[in-house]
Protein: Transcriptional regulator
Amino acid sequence: MSPLVKIRSERDRMSAVERRIADFILENAQLLRDYSSQQLANALGISQSSVVKFTQKLGFRGYPDLKYSVGEAIGRVEGDDAPAAGQRGDAIGAELWARKTRAEEATHAINAPATVAAVVAAIERARRVFMIGVGEDDLHVRTFAMRLSLLGITAIRHADVGRMAAQVGMAEAGDVLMVFSEHGRHAALARIARFVRERRVHVVTVTRHTANPLRAMADLALVVAAHDDASYVQALIYQSTVQQLVDTLFVHLCEGDEQRHQRLVENFDRVQQLLEP
Structure:
């Protein structure tokens, strides 16, 4: 994994001092080769030992190892991506694309393949999949619920917390509750998750890569790394990264069962025929 991707993916779980170091490295990666650990510490007004501990916490032997790895990563990006970015012509669009790509890479890195496979397996085995997200989180819920229905999987989706609280009353052992909550701190969603867990329903959460109540009570937690200094960009990056994560689950479900894939094709055809003028 690229050291810059690793730093981005772990940033939200870092202490305040560690985030300062991380942000400096991410914003000044090209200049890092000119900084010793002491110079970096002086620039941030922290101790040299804090810099050394930061690098070791990320799994590097020391600061020189981190600096060398960052230099290699920058070289690969410049060699591979510079021409493509130039061809786009739109500098703002190209930079936004790059930010989204970095977030998706970081998110892919922190969600273990075994976790993704376990979520797919839980959905496949479930009699019903209950899904909820509030506000913008509902955008992904709505799309994913529709796609599950095209695969022949029963998906019960609500954006209204009260209605979902009533619906989960029919939940049985082996069903799945998927909760989409960016910050994972919605109290009502946490109560619903706690209720269904008592019924041995599998709770799957999709939240930011932070410590939060919903993630803590999940049987399976999918997490999103989408930090950006500009709040308006961070919101865009989070939404696109969640969509990439959900799309990955959908493709796994499509390719994991030929009969299910055939059902999807048939349903697509039927919908198209019904919508034709």
Q: What stands out?
A: Residues 111 and 177 are 19 Å apart (CA to CA). The two ends are 50 Å apart (CA to CA). Residues 82-86 have pLDDT under 50 and may be disordered. The chain has two domains: 3-89, 113-273.
